[in-house]
Amino acid sequence: MTSQTTSQFAKPRIDVRALLGLHDPADTTDWGPIRAAQLHAGSQLALFMLAANVVGAALLTLILAPLIPLWQLASWGALVAAVATFVVFRRLSKRHRNAVTATLHDVRATVIDGIALGAVWSIAPLAFGHAADADAALGLWIVLSLLMTASAVAMAALPLATITFVSIIGAAITATLLLIASPVLAAAAALFTVLLAMTTFGRGKALVVIRAGEIALAERDETVSLLLREFEDSGSDWLWEIDAQRRVARANPRFALSLGVDPKTINGMPFLQVLAGPTWEDGNFAAGLRELAEKLKGREPFRDLLLPVFVENEERWWEMSASPRFDERGVFIGFRGVGSDVTEQRRSTDKINKMARFDTLTGLPNRLLINEALGKAMADADKWSSRCAFMMIDLDRFKAVNDTLGHPIGDRLLGRVSERLKHLMTDNEMIGRLGGDEFAVVVRDAGDTARVEQLAQTIIEKLSAPYEVDQHTLYIGASVGLAMGPRDGRTAEMLIRSADLALYRSKDAGGGSFHAYEPQLHLAAEERRVLEIALRSAVENGEMHLNYQPVVDARTGSLTGFEALLRWTHPTLGNISPAKFVPLAEEARLIAPIGEWVLRTACAEAATWDMPVRIAVNVSPDQLHNPAFVGVVANALAQSGLSADRLELEVTESVFMREGTAAIQVLEKILDLGIRLSLDDFGTGYSSLGYLARTRFSSIKIDRSFVQGASKGRKEPIAIIRAVVALAGSLGMATTAEGVETEEEHLMVQELGCTKVQGYYFGRPLPVQEARGLATHRGGGSVAA
Fold first, then answer.
1. 442 pairs with which residues across the strands?
2. Which of 111, 327, 398, 615 could cross-link to 606 by cystine, CB 3.0-4.6 Å?
């Protein structure tokens, strides 16, 4: 029970209508037990009131016998006795005497008793008062006054019934005195009646307040008893008490049992000695015990003080709380408190803390523990004017393993990686997993820079060795970013940021290497941030435009189409290379809206050209993995009016390396629209023949690196070009040689069998007006300059 509830029961708000039994209030006071107490109090003096009614009727009969016929008095007396007996039986009913709660109706029904008794007693003054002389009138008044007073005192617990009874008789006496005596006596009788009614109400209210307090106390005692029983039955807590000399007083059996000793043996022993156990002799006390000693010495209350206790050579953890005690004179007499064995809770907490700081897959420290270790290493380096280091490790080609073989194989591979990393660590390093395929190393003492760099190189070499996982031989690599503290960052967060920038440079360089942080990396990161912000509004601001590079027939040199090439001219930054902003757009998830703009713009432009010049548009893997892209393509054709066979989409091999078949399904739907499909940069990536057979490509584009290598007479590029041409021919596909810049290169690719050519020899990427003039006024001859 809360203190608020107890207060409400101890000092209830007494509603007058509720007290009288006329209303059931909606407050928090429980009136059921109070009404039961009212009825029970009324039944306790029921026999007394019966006697008072019988005696009163007899006295009035004797007083009025000389003046009133005896049969009238006898009849009236019998009626009084009958009604009083009926009321007594109602008051003494078992329901009223034994009930623990009562309803509003039960209390309201007692008004019938008051009305009945008041009515029969009002007969005496109203029927017999006119015949009474002075002595008889005085006797009548005295008897009725005593009866009214007795009722107001004895039956005040039922104020509504009693006030009704008193009011009826008082009104009858007042009316009689007004008729046979003087108005002054009538007024006195009326005042007496009012005072009795007020007294009855006051006593009734006082009795209700007392009873409400008793109920509140009883409920509180019951609650305390329940809590104490629960406390005693729980078996995990115990009470303890010490005297002013800090010796055990009246040892609680459960307290002694928790220590594994007999209560009699520790009574009178120093409390700290009992808790210290085997450490008491050597003085090697735990910090918690020393804190407890200080609290006891200072006579300070304490809560939830944690300290280790040895019970039968096993370390247990106790939680102690206590308050100092003083006698009535204010003299300190000791402490009394409660203790709990929280060993299991502490073990659970330690386990949870471990789970919060260690990676569940690899068992390595996780990001939280790595951050804590780095923070400590930074603090030590600052304290001793030394250096620490932080490495970030990212696995190369790990995503391809996940996408092709599935996440279970990827998880097992991460386990093998973590094992190799553990074997490379010494007491000076901590290895952890940050998440995904990212790991980190904290080097506590990095005074030997050469050794730290050698560790980074060793990590790359060890992680690049092949792995055998579930009968799969897997080849991955690693890229490392290195930052030295406090040189590259005064805080742990800054050092992690610096290592991340160095890792980004390693990945950007192709992976398989480590880079140390350099200040200009921050400048590069800031440049990427500024470019990304500008890129988000480049299309809306009209900063993007398309150039169109001619594609010609290798044999005749006649124009067959254009490739749309995206260009960005920023108002302050100038021309920005596609090699810089296209990867940034892919990282920032901006390639889809930009690619859609390119597609719509290219289709709209190509619709103005003469037939049958085609337009080729590059499409990113992100666009093809979105099923809605089919609708984007169809809408672009519909709005521009361009026929589907004049649109060619160029995709790279990387689109097929993601897990799932979403891109293939999208490509099939695009092909069903009648659109042509070209495989760009074939031979530079994964070069799997499987997707060539599964997908209906119309042409294969040979990367310019092979063209340049073949022009120098190198055998490998020449063999690759011949193989691609033969493969395309067998599959009914055309071949386009990219990067043809000289007549010799043109003749070479023509001799090797390429069907189309693209490069500076036939034309640089042209502005839209020049491309439109070439597409609409070509003469059918060679495009070569």
1. 390, 430
2. 615
Torsions phi, psi of 584, nearest 5?
Answer: -65, -40
pLDDT tens by residue, 71-83: 888 888 888 888 8
Q: Which of 685, 675, 686 is nearest to 646 (CA)?
A: 675
Are the C-beta atoms of 196 and 244 separated by less than 8 Å? no
How would you classify residue 312: left for phi > 0, otherwise alpha for psi between -120 and 50, otherwise beta?
A: left
Contact 255, 241 (CB under 8 A): no
Q: 39-54 burial by CB neighbour count: b if 16+ within 10 A, else e? A: bbbbbebbeebbebbe
Residue 609 belongs to what H/E stretch?
none
Residue 139's closest CA among 251, 61, 22? 61
Q: What is the DSSP letter of 645?
A: G
* Mean pLDDT of the residues in the chain: 83
Which tokens is 482 given? Answer: 């290195």
Contact 341, 307 (CB under 8 A): no
Kindly give the pairing relationship between strand 332-341 and strand 237-242: antiparallel
> What separation in angstroms does the CA of 19 have from each of 94, 548, 658?
23, 97, 81
Query: CB under 8 Å to 199, separation ≥6 — which residues?
Result: 152, 156
317-338 CB burial, b ≥16 within 10 A, e <16: bbbbebebbeeeeeeeebbebb
* DSSP, residue by residue, 87-139: HHHHHT-HHHHH-S---HHHHHTHHHHHHHHHHHHHHIIIIIGGG--HHHHHH
Residue position matching structure tokens 């390639």 = 591
Structure confidence at residue 226 (pLDDT): 45
Which band of pLDDT confidence, cut at 50, 70 and 90, is reported for residue 785? very low
User: In the predicted model, is pLDDT for residue 424 greater than 90?
Assistant: yes
The dihedrals phi and psi of 140, each to the nearest 5 degrees, come to -60, -45
Query: How many angstroms separate the CA atoms of 146 and 196, rounded?
Result: 11
Who contacts 197 (Cβ-Cβ below 8 Å, separation ≥6)?
A: 152, 163, 166, 167, 170
- Residues of 742-766 as b/e, b for ≥16 C-beta within 10 angstroms? eeebbebbbebbbbbbbbebbbebb
Mean pLDDT of 632-648: 94
Q: Tell me which residue has tokens 């007394």.
A: 48
Among residues 634, 693, 701, the alpha carbon closest in space to that of 664 is found at 693
Which residue pairs from 372-378 have beta carbons closer than 8 angstroms and sit at least 24 positions apart in sequence?
373/430, 373/432, 373/442, 374/442, 374/492, 374/495, 374/496, 375/492, 377/442, 377/443, 377/444, 377/485, 378/485, 378/486, 378/491, 378/492, 378/495
Quick count: other Cβ atoms within 10 Å of Cβ 392?
Answer: 24
Residue with structure tokens 């002694």? 256
Query: Cβ distance 576 to 594 under 8 Å?
Result: no
Q: Is 60 exceeded by the pLDDT of residue 199?
A: yes
pLDDT top residue among 680 and 752: 752
- Rounded to whole angstroms, the Cα distance separating 195 from 175 reads 17
Give the residue-averaged pLDDT of 563-581: 91
In the predicted structure, residue 27 carries a pLDDT above the cut 80:
no
Cβ-Cβ contacts under 8 Å for 653 (sequence gap 6 or more): 679, 681, 682, 684, 685, 686, 687, 688, 691
Can you tell me which residue has the tokens 């897997």? 474
For tokens 């939680």, the residue is 319
d(CA 448, CA 398): 31
Q: Which of 145, 116, 126, 154 is nearest to 56 (CA)?
A: 145
Calculate the alpha carbon distances from 406 to 394, 398, 710 in Å.
19, 11, 39
State residue 782's pLDDT score: 53
Residue given tokens 């809408």 in the structure block:
635
pLDDT band at 595 (very low <50, low <70, confident <90, very high): very high
Among the residue ranges 11-25, 296-310, 494-508, 710-724, the one predicted with the least confidence is 11-25
